[in-house]
Design brief:
Elements lengths: L9 E3 L9 H8 L7 E4 L2 E4 L7 H11 L4 H7 L2 H12 L10 H13 L5 H23 L3 H5 L7 H8 L8 H15 L4 H27 L2
Antiparallel strand pairs: 1-3, 2-3
Protein backbone atom coordinates (compact mmCIF):
# COMPACT_ATOMS: atom_id res chain seq x y z
CA UNK A 1 0.00 0.00 0.00
CA UNK A 2 2.98 2.31 0.17
CA UNK A 3 2.55 3.04 -3.55
CA UNK A 4 -1.05 4.17 -3.14
CA UNK A 5 -1.37 7.77 -4.28
CA UNK A 6 -3.17 10.28 -2.06
CA UNK A 7 -5.30 12.76 -4.01
CA UNK A 8 -6.44 16.08 -2.47
CA UNK A 9 -10.10 17.14 -2.50
CA UNK A 10 -9.47 19.59 -5.34
CA UNK A 11 -7.13 19.13 -8.29
CA UNK A 12 -6.28 21.20 -11.34
CA UNK A 13 -7.15 19.98 -14.82
CA UNK A 14 -3.45 19.78 -15.59
CA UNK A 15 -3.00 17.29 -12.74
CA UNK A 16 -5.51 14.75 -14.09
CA UNK A 17 -4.11 11.60 -15.67
CA UNK A 18 -5.40 10.59 -19.10
CA UNK A 19 -7.45 13.77 -19.41
CA UNK A 20 -8.93 12.70 -22.76
CA UNK A 21 -10.84 9.90 -21.04
CA UNK A 22 -11.69 11.85 -17.88
CA UNK A 23 -15.30 12.62 -18.86
CA UNK A 24 -15.94 8.94 -19.47
CA UNK A 25 -14.57 8.02 -16.03
CA UNK A 26 -16.76 10.66 -14.38
CA UNK A 27 -19.78 9.29 -16.24
CA UNK A 28 -18.93 5.74 -15.19
CA UNK A 29 -18.52 6.66 -11.52
CA UNK A 30 -21.93 8.32 -11.70
CA UNK A 31 -23.53 4.91 -12.00
CA UNK A 32 -22.76 4.17 -8.35
CA UNK A 33 -21.87 7.60 -6.90
CA UNK A 34 -23.94 10.33 -8.62
CA UNK A 35 -22.60 13.88 -8.25
CA UNK A 36 -19.44 12.69 -6.50
CA UNK A 37 -17.29 14.96 -8.64
CA UNK A 38 -17.88 18.68 -9.12
CA UNK A 39 -16.36 19.96 -12.35
CA UNK A 40 -15.21 23.57 -12.15
CA UNK A 41 -13.42 25.90 -14.50
CA UNK A 42 -9.76 24.98 -14.20
CA UNK A 43 -10.26 22.33 -11.52
CA UNK A 44 -12.41 19.47 -10.23
CA UNK A 45 -13.52 18.83 -6.65
CA UNK A 46 -14.44 15.73 -4.67
CA UNK A 47 -17.98 16.01 -3.20
CA UNK A 48 -18.51 13.07 -0.84
CA UNK A 49 -21.54 12.42 1.35
CA UNK A 50 -21.39 13.50 4.98
CA UNK A 51 -20.96 9.83 5.82
CA UNK A 52 -18.59 9.15 2.94
CA UNK A 53 -17.44 5.57 2.51
CA UNK A 54 -13.89 4.56 1.64
CA UNK A 55 -15.13 3.56 -1.80
CA UNK A 56 -16.21 7.12 -2.51
CA UNK A 57 -12.62 8.21 -1.93
CA UNK A 58 -11.23 5.30 -3.97
CA UNK A 59 -13.61 6.25 -6.80
CA UNK A 60 -12.29 9.81 -6.67
CA UNK A 61 -8.68 8.62 -6.75
CA UNK A 62 -9.35 6.34 -9.73
CA UNK A 63 -11.13 9.10 -11.64
CA UNK A 64 -8.15 11.43 -11.21
CA UNK A 65 -5.38 8.80 -11.33
CA UNK A 66 -6.56 5.76 -13.33
CA UNK A 67 -3.05 4.33 -13.03
CA UNK A 68 -4.00 3.49 -9.43
CA UNK A 69 -6.64 0.99 -10.62
CA UNK A 70 -4.64 -2.09 -9.59
CA UNK A 71 -4.12 -0.82 -6.05
CA UNK A 72 -7.73 0.31 -5.73
CA UNK A 73 -9.20 -2.98 -6.95
CA UNK A 74 -7.24 -4.78 -4.22
CA UNK A 75 -8.90 -2.82 -1.42
CA UNK A 76 -12.24 -1.43 -2.65
CA UNK A 77 -15.74 -2.93 -2.46
CA UNK A 78 -17.16 -5.25 -5.07
CA UNK A 79 -19.33 -2.65 -6.83
CA UNK A 80 -16.44 -0.29 -7.50
CA UNK A 81 -14.12 -3.13 -8.45
CA UNK A 82 -16.58 -4.47 -11.00
CA UNK A 83 -17.20 -0.99 -12.42
CA UNK A 84 -13.46 -0.34 -12.90
CA UNK A 85 -12.97 -3.74 -14.50
CA UNK A 86 -15.93 -3.19 -16.82
CA UNK A 87 -14.63 0.27 -17.72
CA UNK A 88 -11.21 -1.15 -18.53
CA UNK A 89 -12.79 -3.82 -20.74
CA UNK A 90 -15.06 -1.31 -22.47
CA UNK A 91 -18.27 -2.74 -20.98
CA UNK A 92 -19.43 0.48 -19.29
CA UNK A 93 -21.54 2.15 -21.95
CA UNK A 94 -22.46 5.85 -22.36
CA UNK A 95 -26.05 6.99 -21.94
CA UNK A 96 -26.86 6.87 -25.65
CA UNK A 97 -26.13 3.11 -25.72
CA UNK A 98 -28.29 2.25 -22.70
CA UNK A 99 -31.18 -0.13 -23.30
CA UNK A 100 -34.78 -0.25 -22.11
CA UNK A 101 -33.64 -2.58 -19.32
CA UNK A 102 -31.26 0.16 -18.19
CA UNK A 103 -34.13 2.65 -18.31
CA UNK A 104 -36.14 0.38 -16.01
CA UNK A 105 -33.15 -0.04 -13.67
CA UNK A 106 -32.66 3.73 -13.45
CA UNK A 107 -36.38 4.30 -12.84
CA UNK A 108 -36.28 1.81 -9.96
CA UNK A 109 -33.28 3.60 -8.44
CA UNK A 110 -35.24 6.87 -8.61
CA UNK A 111 -38.33 5.24 -7.10
CA UNK A 112 -36.54 3.52 -4.23
CA UNK A 113 -33.96 6.16 -3.26
CA UNK A 114 -34.27 7.46 0.29
CA UNK A 115 -34.27 11.20 -0.37
CA UNK A 116 -34.14 11.94 3.36
CA UNK A 117 -30.40 11.15 3.16
CA UNK A 118 -27.81 13.00 1.09
CA UNK A 119 -26.63 9.81 -0.61
CA UNK A 120 -30.22 8.86 -1.46
CA UNK A 121 -31.00 12.31 -2.84
CA UNK A 122 -27.88 12.16 -5.00
CA UNK A 123 -28.75 8.68 -6.23
CA UNK A 124 -32.22 9.86 -7.27
CA UNK A 125 -30.83 12.98 -8.91
CA UNK A 126 -28.29 10.98 -10.88
CA UNK A 127 -30.88 8.44 -11.99
CA UNK A 128 -33.41 11.09 -13.06
CA UNK A 129 -30.72 12.98 -14.99
CA UNK A 130 -29.78 9.79 -16.83
CA UNK A 131 -33.45 9.07 -17.58
CA UNK A 132 -33.88 12.55 -19.06
CA UNK A 133 -30.76 12.09 -21.19
CA UNK A 134 -32.00 8.72 -22.43
CA UNK A 135 -35.40 10.12 -23.47
CA UNK A 136 -33.72 13.02 -25.26
CA UNK A 137 -31.21 10.82 -27.08
CA UNK A 138 -33.83 8.26 -28.06
CA UNK A 139 -35.95 11.10 -29.44
CA UNK A 140 -33.00 12.53 -31.37
CA UNK A 141 -32.52 9.13 -32.99
CA UNK A 142 -36.22 8.55 -33.80
CA UNK A 143 -36.46 5.75 -31.23
CA UNK A 144 -39.06 7.14 -28.83
CA UNK A 145 -41.43 4.29 -29.69
CA UNK A 146 -39.04 1.92 -27.91
CA UNK A 147 -39.49 3.83 -24.65
CA UNK A 148 -43.23 4.25 -25.12
CA UNK A 149 -43.42 0.44 -24.96
CA UNK A 150 -42.59 0.90 -21.26
CA UNK A 151 -45.56 3.17 -20.58
CA UNK A 152 -47.35 0.50 -18.53
CA UNK A 153 -44.29 -0.34 -16.45
CA UNK A 154 -44.77 0.41 -12.76
CA UNK A 155 -41.78 2.75 -12.44
CA UNK A 156 -40.43 3.42 -15.94
CA UNK A 157 -43.73 4.53 -17.48
CA UNK A 158 -43.98 7.66 -15.38
CA UNK A 159 -40.61 8.98 -16.56
CA UNK A 160 -41.49 8.39 -20.20
CA UNK A 161 -44.71 10.31 -19.61
CA UNK A 162 -43.02 13.22 -17.84
CA UNK A 163 -40.08 13.66 -20.22
CA UNK A 164 -41.35 12.69 -23.69
CA UNK A 165 -43.72 15.66 -24.18
CA UNK A 166 -40.75 18.03 -24.14
CA UNK A 167 -39.27 16.41 -27.24
CA UNK A 168 -39.87 18.25 -30.51
CA UNK A 169 -41.00 15.28 -32.61
CA UNK A 170 -43.39 13.60 -30.17
CA UNK A 171 -46.63 12.67 -31.95
CA UNK A 172 -50.14 13.67 -30.95
CA UNK A 173 -50.97 10.09 -29.96
CA UNK A 174 -47.83 9.94 -27.84
CA UNK A 175 -48.78 13.21 -26.15
CA UNK A 176 -52.20 11.79 -25.36
CA UNK A 177 -50.61 8.66 -23.89
CA UNK A 178 -48.35 10.79 -21.70
CA UNK A 179 -51.19 12.89 -20.39
CA UNK A 180 -53.29 9.79 -19.69
CA UNK A 181 -50.44 8.22 -17.71
CA UNK A 182 -49.81 11.36 -15.67
CA UNK A 183 -53.54 11.69 -14.89
CA UNK A 184 -53.51 8.11 -13.61
CA UNK A 185 -50.60 8.94 -11.31
CA UNK A 186 -52.35 12.12 -10.16
CA UNK A 187 -55.37 10.12 -8.98
CA UNK A 188 -53.20 8.20 -6.52
CA UNK A 189 -51.71 9.28 -3.22
CA UNK A 190 -48.31 10.26 -1.94
CA UNK A 191 -45.61 12.56 -3.24
CA UNK A 192 -45.71 11.12 -6.77
CA UNK A 193 -49.43 11.89 -7.09
CA UNK A 194 -48.94 15.40 -5.76
CA UNK A 195 -46.14 15.97 -8.24
CA UNK A 196 -48.31 14.68 -11.10
CA UNK A 197 -51.16 17.04 -10.15
CA UNK A 198 -48.77 19.99 -10.10
CA UNK A 199 -47.31 18.88 -13.42
CA UNK A 200 -50.75 18.71 -15.03
CA UNK A 201 -51.68 22.12 -13.65
CA UNK A 202 -48.53 23.69 -15.06
CA UNK A 203 -48.53 21.86 -18.39
CA UNK A 204 -52.15 21.69 -19.56
CA UNK A 205 -51.64 24.87 -21.55
CA UNK A 206 -48.43 23.40 -22.97
CA UNK A 207 -50.27 20.29 -24.15
CA UNK A 208 -52.87 22.39 -25.94
CA UNK A 209 -50.21 24.57 -27.56
CA UNK A 210 -48.23 21.51 -28.65
CA UNK A 211 -51.28 19.93 -30.26
CA UNK A 212 -52.17 23.20 -32.02
CA UNK A 213 -48.66 23.48 -33.44
CA UNK A 214 -48.71 19.86 -34.64
CA UNK A 215 -52.06 20.51 -36.35
CA UNK A 216 -50.69 23.46 -38.33
CA UNK A 217 -47.46 21.63 -39.12
CA UNK A 218 -49.45 19.19 -41.24
CA UNK A 219 -50.17 21.91 -43.85
Amino acid sequence: MSSFQVVPERVKWTEIEDLNDFDNRVSAIGYIFPDLIDVKKGSVKWRPDNDASEDQYFAWVWTICPSQAVNIKNICGDDLKVLIEEFESGEVVPTYELTRDDFIRLSEIAANADISTLSGARARHGAVTALWEMVTLYADNDRLDELFALMDHSTAGAWVAFFAPEQSDVSESQLAACRKKIKEIAHGSGIEAKGAREWLKENDAYFKQKKWWQFWRKF
